[in-house]
């Protein structure tokens, strides 16, 4: 059994960067999907979303905070897909998801509702350390 495990790892290791590309396309694309109605929803949508910051005692400019959340989800997802400014985008998404998780827990929605924010946040936290892989614009621009 151990040798089968070793052989499997040796077979799949050369494709590590393809795995990172698939991760970027999947999760980045989904964040663009979720962020699209938020970023293009207009001031009413931004204000409703931005009121979440009240959880942290930040009651001013809810439209700004809502816009920034939608911006982070949509354009952060796009940057993740492209592998451009990847670590910065991952960091912004970790913060955004931390706010979402905390506000959902404080509002009493429970871990069943808040778990998606927590899971996605951990995914982007790991991505921050792992990097975008060789099939990314960051890698391409570093080689130039």
Describe this structure in words.
This protein has 144 residues and is mainly alpha-helical. The chain has one domain (15-143). Helices cover 78% and strands 0% of the residues. It contains seven helices and no strands. It has helices at residues 2-12, 16-39, 43-50, 62-82, 86-106, 110-130, 137-143. The radius of gyration is 18 Å and the shape is globular. The model has no long low-confidence stretch (mean pLDDT 95).
- Unreliable segments of 5+ consecutive residues: none
* Structural category: mainly alpha
Rg calculated over all Cα atoms:
18 Å
Helix percent band: over 70%
Q: What distance separates the N and C termini?
A: 44 Å
Task: Indicate the mean pLDDT.
Answer: 95
Q: What form results from the Cα inertia axes?
A: globular
Tell me the number of strands.
0
Largest sheet: none
**Beta-sheet strand percentage?**
under 5%
Q: Helical stretch count?
A: 7
How would you spell out the order of helices and strands? Answer: HHHHHHH
Q: Give the domain tally.
A: 1
């Amino acid at each position: 059994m151990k040798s089968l495990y070793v052989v499997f790892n040796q077979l799949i290791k050369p494709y590590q960067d393809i795995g990172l590309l698939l991760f970027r396309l999947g999760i980045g694309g989904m964040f663009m999907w979720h962020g699209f109605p938020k970023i293009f929803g207009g001031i009413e949508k931004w204000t409703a979303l931005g009121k979440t910051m009240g959880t942290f005692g930040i009651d001013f400019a809810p439209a700004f905070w809502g816009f920034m959340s939608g911006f982070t989800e949509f354009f952060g997802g796009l940057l993740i897909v492209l592998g451009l400014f990847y670590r910065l985008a991952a960091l912004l998404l970790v913060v955004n998801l931390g706010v979402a998780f905390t506000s959902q827990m404080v509002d009493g929605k429970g871990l069943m509702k808040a778990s998606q924010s927590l899971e996605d946040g951990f995914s982007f936290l790991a991505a921050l350390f792992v990097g975008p892989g060789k099939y990314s614009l960051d890698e391409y621009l570093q080689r130039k």
